[in-house]
């Protein structure tokens, strides 16, 4: 059988269908990959973190790394939040320094909210995590005729995730200063 | 000749005819199964193989490569592409958004040879502006390398710079003068270079303005 006969007898329907099916499988595998992994950052951290409470993690040392590729160049305070029962208030003051960040990370690893410190002045951060855009959070002070004294916190729609406060580890001399800033951070469920 | 033909026809009993038909049907079934096996194989190799490659290795669409350094350009972002999202979900790392900081990882030296603790390296570069940065050494599983000096990284605040603003970090098993990162007997190594770039994201700059990442030079191997 020569090549012409082979081509004539080939199953062209399957040959054309193969790249189409491969494309569909490629898309499905790629989209499903984050959900199929058993060792995502969220699934590793969540069991060790109390709900709606900021917790300072110890210095990152060999054998005590909460996550792979987590550098000991920083100290961390984290809060696992769940807004199913109501909004969660998060506040912190990032010192006037470089390298401080506060991020709200979704279970899929997306930074829903991120802010960094500025060297010139401390950066106060106040956010309220709400279950969804449509959720009723009660009557605002303005609606009750009360003027706000301060800037209202930014509302961020997030059902679950982790708030990560990161401060650069500058060595023993600065350890207390860094830990004080981490301890001052708040993460608490709003009570009605 | 005619006689023989008649004889052969008369020799085809119903059993022979049945066997012949069965043989024909089996060959058709084998042909169809072969086609489908080839189809399924091609779909699996193409579909899963390309997905694995784009998630694990990355392409110019999702990564920025400079020498041995690889950075995922939309790491940690809410609008990250599915490959980047899958890459970091599989790694199990917590990424800062690239709007704040860029992390580059290197598994090879600048000549493309795999980083290994049996070799000594010199990492040389220039401070990337006035922003905070860090250089950390891990094994290839992302674990810190235990060492008596308890030294795992250098940052812009802890590194000793040369008078001209450049730096050199020795990556070696044995203690070395200057900035030394111990590699002990970790085996394969990974270097992570993180630079904060608040306000002026490196990615948005033209390529010629992007800050040069450190060069990883192999000094010697044992």
Describe the structure.
The complex is a heterodimer of chains A (192) and B (222). Chain A has 4 helices and 9 strands, in the order αααββββββββαβ. Chain A is of the alpha+beta class and 192 residues long. Chain A folds into 2 domains: 3-36; 41-189, Immunoglobulin-like. In chain A, strands 1-2-8-4-5 form a 5-stranded antiparallel beta sheet, covered by helices on one side. A 4-stranded mixed beta sheet of chain A has the order 7-6-3-9. Chain A is elongated, with a radius of gyration of 24 Å. Chain B has helices at 2-11, 14-56, 82-91, and strands at 63-66, 69-72, 101-106, 119-126, 133-139, 153-155, 166-172, 179-182, 189-196, 215-221. Helix content of chain B is 28%, strand content 26%. In chain B, the strands form 2 sheets. In chain B, strands 1-2-3-9-5-6 form a 6-stranded antiparallel beta sheet, with no helix packed on it. Chain B has a 4-stranded mixed beta sheet with strand order 8-7-4-10, with no helix packed on it. Chain B folds into 2 domains: 2-55; 64-221, Domain of unknown function DUF1214, C-terminal domain (Jelly Rolls). Chain B is an alpha+beta fold and 222 residues long. Chain B is elongated and about 100 Å long. Chains A and B meet through helix 2, helix 3, strand 4, strand 5 and strand 8 of A and helix 2, helix 3, strand 5 and strand 9 of B.
């Amino acid at each position: 059988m020569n090549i012409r006969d082979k081509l004539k007898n080939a199953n062209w329907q399957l040959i054309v269908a193969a790249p189409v099916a491969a494309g569909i499988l490629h898309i499905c595998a790629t989209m499903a990959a984050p959900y199929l992994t058993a060792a995502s950052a969220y699934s590793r951290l969540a069991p060790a973190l109390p709900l709606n409470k900021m917790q300072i993690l110890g210095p990152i040392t060999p054998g005590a790394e909460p996550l792979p590729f987590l550098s000991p160049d920083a100290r961390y305070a984290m809060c696992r939040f769940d807004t199913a029962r109501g909004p969660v208030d998060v506040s912190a003051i990032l010192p006037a320094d470089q390298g401080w960040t506060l991020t709200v990370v979704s279970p899929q690893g997306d930074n829903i909210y991120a802010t960094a410190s500025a060297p010139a002045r401390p950066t106060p951060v106040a956010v309220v995590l709400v279950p969804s855009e449509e959720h009723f959070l009660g009557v605002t002070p303005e609606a009750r005729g009360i003027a706000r004294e301060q800037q209202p916190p930014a509302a961020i729609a997030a059902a679950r995730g982790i708030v990560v406060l990161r401060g650069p580890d500058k060595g023993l001399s600065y350890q207390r200063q860094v830990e004080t800033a981490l301890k001052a951070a708040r993460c608490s469920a709003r009570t009605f | 000749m005619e006689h023989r033909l008649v004889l052969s026809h008369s020799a085809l009993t119903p059993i022979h005819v049945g066997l012949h038909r069965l043989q024909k049907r089996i060959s058709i079934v084998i042909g169809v199964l072969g086609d489908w096996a080839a189809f399924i194989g091609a779909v699996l190799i193409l579909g899963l193989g390309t997905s694995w490659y784009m998630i694990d290795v990355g392409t110019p669409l999702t990564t920025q490569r400079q020498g041995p350094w690889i950075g995922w350009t939309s790491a940690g972002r809410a609008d990250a592409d599915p490959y980047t999202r899958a890459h970091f979900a599989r790694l199990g790392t917590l990424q800062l958004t690239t709007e704040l900081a860029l992390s580059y990882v290197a598994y090879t030296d600048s000549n493309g040879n795999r980083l290994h603790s049996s070799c000594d390296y010199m990492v040389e570069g220039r401070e990337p502006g006035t922003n905070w940065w860090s250089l950390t050494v891990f094994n290839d599983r992302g674990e810190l390398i235990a060492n008596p000096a308890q030294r795992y990284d250098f940052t812009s605040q802890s590194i000793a710079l040369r008078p001209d603003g450049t730096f050199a970090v020795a990556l070696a098993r044995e203690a070395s003068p200057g900035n030394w990162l111990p590699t002990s007997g970790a085996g394969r190594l990974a270097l992570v270079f993180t630079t904060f770039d608040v306000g002026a994201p490196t990615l948005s700059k033209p390529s010629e303005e992007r800050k040069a990442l450190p060069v990883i030079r192999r000094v010697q191997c044992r």
